[in-house]
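Newbie here. two chains, one complex. Structure please?
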Amino acid sequence: MPAENPLPTDLPTPVDPFVPVSGWGRTATTTAAVLRPRSQDEAAAAVRDWGVRGGIARGLGRAYGDAAQNAGGTVLDMTALRRIHAVDTEAGTVVCDAGVSLHRLMEVLLPLGWFVPVTPGTRHVTVGGAVGADIHGKNHHVSGAFSRHVESVELLTADGSVHTALPGTDLFDATTGGMGLTGVILSAKIRLHRVETSLMSVDTERATDLDDLMARLAATDHRYRYSVAWIDLLARGRALGRSVLTRGEHAPLDALPARARRDPLAFRPGRLPAPPAFVPAGLLTRTTVGLFNEFWYRRAPRSRTGRLQRIPSFFHPLDAVPHWNRIYGRDGFVQYQFVVGHGQEETLRRIVRRIARRRCPSFLAVLKRFGEADPGWLSFPVPGWTLALDIPAGLSGLGGFLDELDEEVAGAGGRVYLAKDSRLRPELLAGMYPRLADFRTLRARLDPRGVFASDLSRRLGL
Amino acid sequence: MKDAFGTPQSLLVLGGTSEIGLAVARRLIARRARTVWLAGRPCPELEAAAEGLRALGADVRTVAFDALETAAHEESLGKVFTEGDIDMVLLAFGVLGDQANDEGDPPAAVRVAQTNYTGAVSAGLICAAALQNQGHGSLVVLSSVAGERARRANFIYGSSKAGLDAFAQGLGDALYGTGVHVMVVRPGFVRTRMTAGRPAAPLATTPEAVAAAVELGLRRRSETVWVPGTLRIAMTALRHVPRPLFRRLPV
């Protein structure tokens, strides 16, 4: 089985470093030489050394598809570069290595009263990966993508030299969302968000169908810093798109009960046991997922306000189960995330109806309203509606079905998220990302030898 | 690169006029395949096959390849791999021979064995090494149900396929963990030019059915694929039939 994090922490580089590498979805495994530099100099030496098949940086391997794989070449495991260099508790900034995880930042920064500006559904991503994929979170409608909070990036380019990329420059805009193909991100300076407590004040409500959901999101999203909806994609008919909306804020100190006020910035995420390494494929069927979805919908209160929740359970519920991706068995799974602009509600409705009619067993589907876009050339979020769903890769006919959805998305001027992609038809890419030509030109200039390459870049011709 | 469903973008068909090979190519072009190499003896049929695939929208090129000329394999196949990654190699060449005649014509029988087995060993090893260098790819080997147990009626062909089958299985085990996937496909009686005029055996199938099975096998990363799938059960039973009985069976 492919390793999600190919090398144990403290081993020297092995003699035969070629190991199988896959993304979080555990599909399309390929082999690469995994190197784990311990310093920026080692990373630079490795880049200068790369042969014809090149290399790509990898963090904690949470990209679902093949973004951090490089068949026959090198994968630079950046997790040993994990130093936090400086925290400015006055201005609220942190300078840290690319291999530092958001989990680590939370451990260090929360007790100081600061929180990461953007967090995705997992804390186990690195800062380098967050910049490279220009990740977004539940606060996108307010705070934008990760790159909006980055003040500078140190980038190791193809010639082995280090450049400082600043917002507003081409290099910065190509690197944020650039999937690691402009160079190896070595470190970044990030602006933080001030918090009084480590608890969230959460409002939950049920939406009876998709139109109800979109109406609620459009009407009241601006009142919340964080907002996301879990959507039941197996519900059909009048219940099509029924959802549970959870929206929240960082709880102020005076909202806490007296006991919690003694240690308001505590951060102690719990962990459940991991699923076994070998799980039979086919556990997640229409029946089991349908039952789960029914339970999950009924379990949610019709409407409840001001419930206090810890950061892990509000933002990262799946992080409680290490290796949760194993539950899909050896076939793995595909994550499909797209965005269509405002005014394309009909497209969204049509896609949701098609997924429901197709009976895709998806229990981790979320819908969110994006705010303003950021300038990254290959940055994913644009204002509009985004839907993300997990589907077992072994589902028969799935490839053709997702191709049809792509046509709908592309036809509506939307796009799919490269950090999650493992199957897009390459011909559609340029239409989805209008700055792709600029990206390719800059890459040709910056990296004439094509040193930076990944399975994703080969598959899509990035 | 192959996508999450194992669908290749580039394809090398060894035996570029093979009906099964072309059926697989057509099916994969309809999905993701954009680059197709057809390797075979230069002849009008090969060019016609290439033209047919081009009409489907693929970038098709031909390369001169003769299974019997093993000394030239390294150069001709090596050239293909220098032009870009090959996501899947389909080893589709083979000859049926004429058992009744070949039993009395040993040089003809040897040609069957050399094409189906020796040629495949040479081409298979060269392609496997190239795939290993690129760190990914599938080698799909067209074996045959005839190789599972030699029959009186076509044991020359059967034995060559038995050798090929064993070779491909071993190669698959040798390459396990290298990112290269070897898949052995064992079709039953396939209705093609090669079998035209022969009475169809039970569970006969078509090139299109073999192509569908190959696509499914790629998605599942299967190591052995039977076409049709029920042959797996039928052959498991036949394998255990005692010799005196087996040689009298009308199969």
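Moderator note: Chain A touches chain B at residues 18, 20, 25, 27-32, 53, 65-66, 70-73, 331-332, 334, 393-394, 398-400, 422-423, 425-426, 455, 458-459 (CB under 8 Å). The two ends of chain A are 28 Å apart (CA to CA). Thread marked as resolved.
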